[in-house]
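Follow-up to my earlier ticket, as requested here are the two runs.
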Amino acid sequence: MRLSQEEIAGLIDTDALKERLTALTSKNDGDGWDMKVRSAVLAELKSTVKAARENVEALLNEDGGGLLCAARLSSIQDELIRVIYDFALHHVYRVKNPSAAERMSIAAVGGYGRGTLAPESDIDLLFILPYKQTPWGEQVVEYILYMLWDLGFKVGHATRNIDECIRLARADMTIRTAILEARYVWGDRPLYDELVQRFDTEVVEGTSSEFIAAKLQERDERHQRQGMSRYLVEPNIKEGKGGLRDLNTLFWIAKYHYRVNRQSELVKKGVLTRSEYKRFKKSEDFLWAVRCHLHFLTSRPEERLSFDVQREIAIRLGYTQHPGMKDVERFMKHYFLVAKDVGDLTRILCAALEEEHVKEPRGKGLSGMMRRLRKGRLSGALKTVDGAPDFVVENNRLNAASPTIFESDPTNLLRAFQIADKHEYNMHPQLTRLMRHSLKLVDANVRNDPEANRLFLSILTSRHFPEKTLRKMNETGLLGRFVPEFGKVVAMMQFNMYHHYTVDEHLIRSIGVLADIERGDSGDDHPLATDLILTLQNRKVLYVAMFLHDIAKGRPEDHSIAGARIARKLCPRFGLNDAETETVAWLIEHHLEMSTIAQSRDLSDRKTITDFAQTVQSLERLKLLLILTVADIRAVGPGVFNGWKGQLLRTLYYASEPHLTGGHTKLSHNQTIVKAKEDLSARLQHWPDEARSGYLNRHYPAYWLRTEPDRLAAHAELLHEADQEGKHLAFQVVPRAFEGVTELTIFAPDHPRLLSVIAGACHATGANIVDAQIDTTTDGFALDTIFIGRELPGDKDERRRGERITRLIEATLRGEERLPDPIARKSSVKGRMKAFKVATEVLVNNALSDDYTVLEISGLDRPGLLFDLTRSIATLNLNIGSAHISTFGEKVVDVFYVTDLTGQKIANIGRQDIIRERLANAVEGNVELDPAAPVARKAQRQAS
């Protein structure tokens, strides 16, 4: 984009600036004249640049033009360089009779060469010389560069003669790209013209395929670094997939291959249609607007749209909140739709190049095709697809037999994808383009057509790679067109730190995870789901529920309930019967329940299991819900699913299974306790009889009911060894690699603030508590089992880390060491967390457990939160039976099973209100310490 001289003059009055600078040279004060004048010149330039940039920012806020803003900044920079160059030439290093070597041309390269500049971007300059460097040239370049640096600009530069430029451009693709974008700024114009002419004939001519292959390879490597999905919720607007660099790459390729200077020329060349060119310009303008606002907002060359800036950018761009969607979510949806358009344009341009150069059967995208350009044109036999005469296959790529196949039968749009999935064909670019232009054919008649829905269900439940096919359908726009409810969540982001992808990308990825589990390709991450999926009576309902489970995101109501309602409408259309439809709707309505219970409830509490089993009602539903839950969590983002969550889900499944098969009536509580004691006694035969019988009476009934056999034995050995050595403090560290946690066992005299001390020590050492089981022995000792997230790959290193934590706990309990000050002070919310607002909520529930009052505290996560909560619970004179810590991005949900000091539930309404108030204050960091709190916790009286 080029500004008129009138527009440039409105930003910076170059003539007036030159006059002011010339006036500064008229004062000759003797010694130090040069430095005084330079200082005065620099001050004048700083003032001018500051005013001009403020004007540009004001205009951006006024008209919203991203490309206009970038062009304005570039034009200001041009004028500034011209003024500095002319001042150096006429007032500082004047040459009366310049030789042929004392010439210079200044060219802008990189993004600046394209005539666009972001507020905090580097300025890339090429100083072109006719021959070798001269003292005069060196002085002028140095003067310009130091002046720009002193003005606060970051300048990338090179000084070369034309021969050097040509030689280096042949050898280095980065330099070749820079010269490709070179734009004349000032100085000797014939020098610049000579460089352009020689570059065109000596470098560009005949090397198109080499350049294209290199640029596409660079793009693939960049995408790999930034994250292969264009739907990451904190995208890099410059380097990320679907960002400005992708548009730059497109134009580099087009300029190099088609020898054009402007994008509009691609329409004349037949590469882009007029509407596609408009999409190119709209995408570029939007991305530039976002980038310029981001630089102005942060005052640094920030290219990542992180959570802490997204809302402010949305406000600057004028987005407002709608029912079910925040202003920032509407802005980010627009961003992802633009990123999708950039991907479409990439495929269109590459398809045009491919059509011209090669027909290649296989390979990873167009970059693979371009890498094989030098091998010559490959061709293959054209054949009709068996049973589908409207389609042909050439070199393993599916294409249309005629341009009217969709007009004559719109169901062919779905049939094409079903054929491609079934035979593992690639889509021909021509077919993809024809599909995009035929989307308007998908109307209510097509959506309700039984054959179209049969084809869609075949794709969705394919045993091949349904994720790949669904993603291609989404990229063409067909998926959202055929299922309008899905279309509403395309490019929709959720403004939180838990979800890594947009809703549509998450849904498609979840289908991919499900298919991986069914094929047995998921490794050892979730063995139970892998085994169970092979035993399902109806796999179809699982895939449909997976596809629809978040379909109602972005609506004002609960998305699980709304999603179930949508499923009841869509499933009959897809061909499911009433029973299948009801199962899908149930799975969607309850798709978060198993995860919530597993992570935030005491799975050793009998009522937790019986209530969950009553909700599930059948073993088949339990299987379906477990597999769906695993795939859902896995598809949220890398690292979200871990071995500990898998273990919790397996524990809940195995505990619930007998209730759904009638097995829960085999053993009563008392029989279970007796059997646990007998099994442990058999493992402790090496103990003296008196020690063994005494130990079996040392624990309350609840301990025997909820502790697994291996842990019972480990605890017994730990306590026995402590007794023999006369110790009142003992610790054990057990790394659990498969679950991704490390288990800390703490045996200590019972104390109301013991868990608080443990939480503080873990926080001080950077350890993240994910779960805790709190037990008290009949002789007044606490036996607490704490699970912390694993950080180190090796068990030995992880054990040493755990031992470091237990040493701090021991030193603190002995009074030898205090927890670091930051723990005792109000912890502040830092970094990206500041962008989020999570309402604090404290629930006090006596219905979830027969023996405990359940406190569920949710709010904004922050360092030291668990420490503050446990301190507050201690001052409230409550005993903690178990604690369950869950974080969902910026939101934390901490659940404590508590009793009063007599082992009873908290029934008094007034006391419940005090608990809610005190814990809500603790979430905010306002902890009330009660000096009268008891120094010893009474033994828990846990009823069987």
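Run two:
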Amino acid sequence: MAQSAAASRKVTTGPAKVSQIDVSAFIDAAGVAAGLSAIAEADSAGGSSDAARAKVLAYLRDVVRDARARVEEAFREDRAGLDCARRLATVQDVLIERIHDFALRHVFPSSNLSSGERMAIVAVGGYGRGTLAPGSDIDLLFLLPYKQTALGEQVVEYLLYLLWDLGFKVGHASRTVDECIKLATADMTIRTSILERWLIVGDEMLFRELGERFQREVVEGTSEAFIAAKLAERAARHAKLGNTRYLVEPNVKEGKGGLRDLNTLFWIAKYHYRVTTPETLAELGVISRRELRLFQKAEDFLWAVRCHLHFATGKAEERLSFDLQPEIAGRLGYNAHPGLKDVERFMKHYFLIAKDVGDLTRILCAALEEQHAKAAPGIAGIRNLVRNLRGRAKKIPGTIDFHIDNNRINVSSPTVFRDDPVNLIRVFRLAASNSLEYHPDTLKLIRRSLRLINGELRENPEANSLFLDVLTDRTNPEFHLRRMNEAGVLGRFIPDFGKIVAMMQFNMYHHFTVDEHLLRSIGVLSLIERGELAGEHPMSTELVGTIKDRRALYVALLLHDIAKGRPEDHSVAGARISRRLCPRLGLDERETDLVAWLVEDHLVMSMTAQQRDISDRKTILDFAERVRTIDRLNLLMILTVCDIRAVGPGVWNGWKGQLLRTLYFETEPTLTGGFTRSTRAERLDASRRRLAERLDEWAEAEREAYLDLHYPNYFLTTPLEEQVRHAAFIREALAGEPLSIRVRTDAFQGITEIMVLAPDHPRLLSMLAGACAGAGANIADAQVFTMSDGRALDVLVLNREFAEDADELRRGERISGHIRNLLQGRDSRRRLISGQKAKRPPKAFSIPASVRIDNDLSNQFTVVEVEGLDRPGLLSDLSRAMADLNLDIRSAHISTYGEKVVDVFYVTDLLGTKITSESRTERIVDWLAHVFENPGSEPMTAGVLPTEKVYGLDRP
């Protein structure tokens, strides 16, 4: 007869703690059995009719709903993630057991089962660990003694269909013990699934037979292969998901540092050490009691996050996306602190847990490696021993505390750090200077010695000198700083850095945590310095060889965002930290002042290049006043490139690079008193000449006429390759229609580009932006070039929507159709936008609109800067509103930073003068703020907006 779920706990291989779960608090097993029996007794067919099945289904739906509601309520009260997962698994056990018993007693009544009809229903995989999330798959193994019988097939089918109808996702297999052993031997996935098994109901002897044969015929002697397979699988999974644990929208289950990593860690330990609980690993001395607590804390926290994700969304959602992070933070009880939102505190805790998971993996791997080296028998063992001895025989010149172990630095004694705490920094310097990896034993001992990093060590001149050597290493400083950070040394040695370890910035612009961003920026600088990015950053590569303050540049990159998360401006606070820290690191007064300036002004160059009109002389003069010297300009240029590159994939592009180079070349003469590598006129002449050389197939007269179409700013701010593309496009359009449009995709940058050539018009940009909004497209950048023949070349850069180029091109053609219809008067902007459901950033983001008008930034124009939450149609609404306000847009600079947009317009009134009237300025600010917050607002004054049909492109 069927074994009870309570008894099955005695033969499980899962965690012992599950037996402590009080099932009756969430589901009344006896009551469910009685309810099902009552349905059978009321049925004329004894429970086997279709009507009885319908009643069983309706009854069990209520049971499942009530049980899950109780589990969720208890979870909200105690916030115990692992207990929640175990409660859900226990509820599932009871449900499956009762359905199985009902099927045998009432649907397919059978008083005495033959030996061939014995069956064990076994939970495997995640369910086999005795844990389930609300949306987890239910993985079942129907274990048979021989081939499937008719009765067994009927029971299995009845159970599965009921579970499916109840809304569960069930993975299942019906196999004999022989088949399980055979498949587990050949397939590592099946082997892992059977490794964690749980008898829900059925024949205990059959279950035990599987366990004994699995251990004897599959596990015995295969630890090395299993460990290698699991670690390779883990590496492939990490590579697929970005290969970093510091993504700001992490996958809680599959991501680096997530639950799957913790599971893999325990699978390996369970397989190799034959343990059933993490507690046993501590008893065996594989991990310390502190590390056991880390494991338990990480497991409980990750389960809490995952269960909340499933409960909050009502589905198996594993990605901790921006729109869900605030809700999960609230469910877990996080509060805001000065400088940090509640969601940022929650995510910092998440990333610290993910880091702990990585530490535990390294610790276990070290223990496994050491045991394998000691235990390897026979000829293979001798070969391994010889190889290991060769590797371990190498000494490191100048030290007896460390040696080289298979190209990894290892400690020579367990007391090396206690004997001399400076070794906690020296070990990284030795590894860097000798290009060594770190032995897991070394990293484990470092973590266990962190308490030795105190005020005395932080002020030690030798320790600081060694740290500066690591930071400025000529080979790979990022790698060694990353190891230092993962080991916990960097945050202890520089406490201000420790405050931003694992800190996320709750926005869609920054892809990584603050500490990860800083380390990546140093990595970019190292690549530039070694010439490995010369193709992408030729100017920075050239400049880096001329700088005199290499140490200051590396220190500034390490510190430029170190004050994130504080109530005050992080640049100002970071400069203050720099002035305090740099002397400790050994920098002199001049270097300290330079680092503080770089940190305080590290955003100035990128903001000026992207948000200001760099063809305006006042922009250049103001920027030069901030920079003061050519040496500081060189340093700021390199730092800016590294900073932007380290923000995340796709943030850097050629357009930003060209803007920075143009700003540099425009500023250089001012700083050098007129002496420069090339004057503006020379650069303009050189740019025209380069384009002419690329257009060598054109007739000379045609080529000269084309070059005269563009104003100087076009040649100075547009990359050559783009100029060539524009030329081909405009040439084709010269003899054609007055309106020409071309669509191009760029999968690498994740954008779609639309080029539009049309007669210039005050409302042109508004209509183009409206056409994009009508198709649900979001404009990431816009370049507007007025030509001398009265036409305008507008280049719109759109965020990509589809993975395939063919789909993206079709979307581009649809937008092109909207543009034609708008400009030729066959459609209206208002109808297009109203018919499109806006795709906004996640609701979690809220940025109040801000409008600022400045007459000091330019001598000729009034600068209108609008900042707030990005949305489709925004640029169209703003440019139309400016036309309503009788403003003439001379240049527009569109910058998006994730969910945030900063649109800057250089404008005049219709007479070409600045806006100086205070009342008119207030009117502009009020109306633009209103338009920002109210998409599709009507014109400010009736009759101001001219009909969109006057554009006249359809007239001969």
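The only thing I checked on run two: Residues 1-19, 373-383, 942-956 have pLDDT under 50 and may be disordered. Let me know what else you need.
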